[in-house]
Amino acid sequence: MTHRIAVVPGDGIGREVVPAALEVVAAVGVDLDTTTFDLGGERYLRDGVVLPDDVLAELGTFDAILLGAVGTPDVPPGVIERGLLLKMRFVLDQYINQRPFRSPDGSVDFVVIRENTEGTYAGEGGFLRKDTPAEIATQGSVNTRYGVERCIRYAFDLAASRARRHLTLVHKTNVLTFSGDLWQRTFDAVATEYPNVETAYNHVDAACIHLVANPERYDVIVTDNLFGDILTDLAGAVTGGIGLAASGCLNPDRTTASMFEPVHGSAPDIAGRGEANPVAAILSAAMMLEFLGEVDAANRIRSACAAPDELTGSTSAIGDAVVARL
Ligand code: NAD
Ligand code: IPM
Ligand code: MN
User: Fold this and answer.
1) Helix 279-291 crosses helix 315-325 at what angle (to 10 degrees)?
2) To bridge 266 with a disulfide, which of 8, 11, 160, 167 should be the other Cys (CB 3.0-4.6 Å)?
3) Per the residue annotation, which of 95, 121, 154, 218 is the catalytic one?
4) Which of 238, 220, 243, 297 lies closest to 105 in space, CA to CA?
């Protein structure tokens, strides 16, 4: 079966790691019908295009989207991140950001379920009296019962399907007494439907300690958009490096396309040198294949990415080594 995939290499190392991921998918024997979309900061600098509505609608018709990374230092912050990446996540209702982490020795194995359409990312707020000495900027956090509950339900379902059946809510309920209270009450209410899942709660600051000091305590973590963003860079750093961290922006209801992308960004500091580790993109492609029902191929790619310490050298050398292992 051929899968129709929209490929968005994006900017910086996104353009370097995506070809490696596509080579690995070809080597595992899964047939992809790919259409490449030239989008990102580099495109914007050329002709001012960020993400036209008709292109976004077209992206939603694919079986999945594979994205490298977007964002360039020459474009003001937010133009591409909000106008392209977050717009895709929001409009395509990819409400789950699933980010799995496994240490090379297997002692650490947890998944972060990050709410992907709300919170401080929703874009609520603005300026008053801009560019005056009395300027005010607000940036609110939007938390709907609907959005929080569907995310928490997904996390409970995932935890119930795993061997340890353990789910930790991470928030900051001691300070964010409105949004935190909604998250905690929703979590407690949904928990009554999952008596076989053991639950825990950590404040986000303490979760940072635990992720560094004893990450093996975690099985599944569910958290809001911003906490999930920060925790997953930290989780990547403590489980082998950000160059290994994969993610999926999922529309679990499959009403439109889900998007698979590394946790990392375009890494302007190393872009163009062929030094980026492509394993995060390769493992994101494996998540995509699993989502498309190609479970065996996904597992074979994951096995080929095991022992990442032995996968060294340039981007293409690592890609070739994974292909050789397959
Ligand atoms: P970054 O993740 O791009 O880089 C952070 C650090 O990690 C850098 O030192 C980089 O060299 C290193 N790194 C990242 N990926 C690596 C890899 N595969 N192999 C080796 N080293 C790697 O974060 P940043 O510098 O804060 O952001 C750069 C740009 O990327 C910004 O415009 C940001 O908005 C954007 N960004 C995009 C995405 C995305 O498209 N999904 C994600 C994160 C950041
Ligand atoms: C990520 C990135 C994005 C986010 C940015 C680029 C909008 O950091 O995917 O983790 O904050 O979600
Ligand atoms: Mn991030």
Assistant:
1) 50
2) 11
3) 121
4) 238
- Kindly give the confidence (pLDDT) of every residue in the chain, 326 residues in length, as a single tens digit, with 9 standing for 90 and above: 899 999 999 999 999 999 999 999 999 999 999 999 999 999 999 999 999 999 999 999 999 999 999 999 999 999 999 999 999 999 999 999 999 999 988 899 999 999 999 999 999 999 999 999 999 999 999 999 999 999 999 999 999 999 999 999 999 999 999 999 999 999 999 999 999 999 999 999 999 999 999 999 999 999 999 999 999 999 999 999 999 999 999 999 999 999 999 999 999 999 999 999 999 999 999 999 999 999 999 999 999 999 988 999 999 999 999 999 99
Active site residue 121: yes
- Residue 18 and residue 276 in contact, taking contact as beta carbons nearer than 8 Å: no
Which ligand lies nearest the alpha carbon of 240?
A: 1
Question: Closest by alpha carbon to 94, among 110, 78, 115?
Answer: 115
Collapsing DSSP to helix, strand or coil, 193 comes out as coil
pTM: 0.98
Provide CB contacts within 8 A for 79, sequence distance 6+: 41, 44, 50
Strands in 96-102's sheet, in edge-to-edge order, are 32-36, 3-10, 64-69, 258-262, 246-250, 96-102, 109-115, 220-223, 166-171, 198-203
- The rounded Å distance from CA 5 to ligand 2 centre is 22
Residue with tokens 């080579």: 23
